[in-house]
């Protein structure tokens, strides 16, 4: 078990381009979370999956954002028509989905939109 | 919004205990207090959590006041590698997501 893995670690893209990030959670974890973090702020919740079902989405997740977890294992977060305001660290976390268990975070994907 | 209040920054001498306070005056009876930390350019790392009783693990101790309106995270012998942002979080249980709601945390600097 190597923990939560996120790829790529860094992504630089031009404004207007689409980007996709991948998260591989810890293998037995059925809950998966996406967060976004900008400089000087704590992570902000974006969305959450229980197995393959996306059960909650933040208002921060605009129509340009879409997340999937097709087989209840890895997840992808896609941002369409990127804007400079999308520049941030995108963090993925997973947990066992039982009450009172901790979430484990990946190292994040740092997105820079130029 | 986060339901906790923490000092923006703190300093601690290497080898001394670091005591990080957190106020959570609106905590409800079935909400836990969690602590995470984030070292620069890494994802947050779980430290400890508790409900009512004081808790201790290999990383830290958590002291929760009897009225549960505040808590203190104690790093007993701080090292330079403990320099990080420390987040105190009241775990929200909304529709079963149990998402973590982060504030801005406390930037702890351990000095040599």
Structural commentary:
Chain A contains no helices and eleven strands. With 114 residues, chain A is mainly β. The radius of gyration of chain A is 13 Å and the shape is globular. The N and C termini of chain B lie far apart (35 Å). Chain B has a five-stranded mixed sheet, with no helix packed on it. Chain B has strands at 9-13, 18-23, 33-38, 45-50, 55-56, 61-64, 70-75, 84-90, 106-111. By secondary structure, chain B is mostly beta strands. Chain B is globular and about 40 Å long. The chains are: A mainly beta (114), B mainly beta (112). The A-B interface holds A 4, 31, 33, 35, 40-45, 48, 50, 55-56, 91, 93, 95, 99-100, 102-108 and B 2, 32, 34, 42-46, 49, 85, 87, 91, 93-105.
The whole-angstrom Rg of chain A is: 13 Å
Largest interface: A-B, 26 and 25 residues
**What does the radius of gyration of chain B come to?**
13 Å
Oligomer: heterodimer
Cα separation of the termini of chain A? 36 Å
Helix content of chain A: under 10%
Kindly name the structural category of chain A: mainly beta
Compute the number of helices of chain B: 0
Mean pLDDT over the full residue set of chain B:
92
Concise synopsis of the structure shown:
Chain A is mostly beta strands and 114 residues long. Chain A is 0% helix and 49% strand.
Features:
heterodimer, A: 114 residues, mainly beta, four-stranded antiparallel beta sheet, 0% helix, 49% strand, globular, B: 112 residues, five-stranded mixed beta sheet
List the helices and strands and how they pair.
The complex is a heterodimer of chains A (114) and B (112).
Chain A: E1 5-7, E2 10-13, E3 19-24, E4 31-37, E5 44-50, E6 53-57, E7 65-68, E8 75-79, E9 88-95, E10 104-105, E11 109-113
Parallel strand pairs in A: 2-11
Antiparallel strand pairs in A: 1-3, 3-8, 4-5, 4-9, 5-6, 7-8, 9-10, 9-11
Chain B: E1 9-13, E2 18-23, E3 33-38, E4 45-50, E5 55-56, E6 61-64, E7 70-75, E8 84-90, E9 106-111
Parallel strand pairs in B: 1-9
Antiparallel strand pairs in B: 2-7, 3-4, 3-8, 5-6, 6-7, 8-9
């Amino acid at each position: 078990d190597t923990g939560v893995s996120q790829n790529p670690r860094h992504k630089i893209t031009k404004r207007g381009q689409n980007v996709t990030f991948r998260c591989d959670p810890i293998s037995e974890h059925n809950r998966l979370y996406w967060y976004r973090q900008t400089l000087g702020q704590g992570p902000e919740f974006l969305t959450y999956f229980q197995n393959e079902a996306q059960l909650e989405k933040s208002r921060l997740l605009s129509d340009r954002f879409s997340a999937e977890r097709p087989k209840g294992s890895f997840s992808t977060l896609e941002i369409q028509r990127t804007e400079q305001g999308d520049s941030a660290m995108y963090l993925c976390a997973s947990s066992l989905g039982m009450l009172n268990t901790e979430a484990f975070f990946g190292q994040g994907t740092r997105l820079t939109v130029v | 919004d986060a339901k906790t209040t923490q000092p923006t920054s703190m300093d601690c001498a290497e080898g001394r205990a670091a005591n990080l306070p957190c106020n959570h005056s609106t905590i409800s009876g079935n909400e836990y207090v969690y602590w995470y930390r984030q070292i620069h350019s890494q994802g947050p790392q779980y430290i400890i959590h508790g409900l009512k009783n004081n808790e201790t693990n290999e990383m830290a101790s958590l002291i929760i006041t009897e009225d549960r309106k505040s808590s203190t995270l104690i790093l007993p012998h701080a090292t330079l590698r403990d320099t990080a942002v420390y987040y105190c979080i009241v775990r929200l249980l909304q529709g079963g997501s149990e998402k973590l709601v982060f504030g801005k945390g406390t930037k702890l600097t351990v000095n040599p």
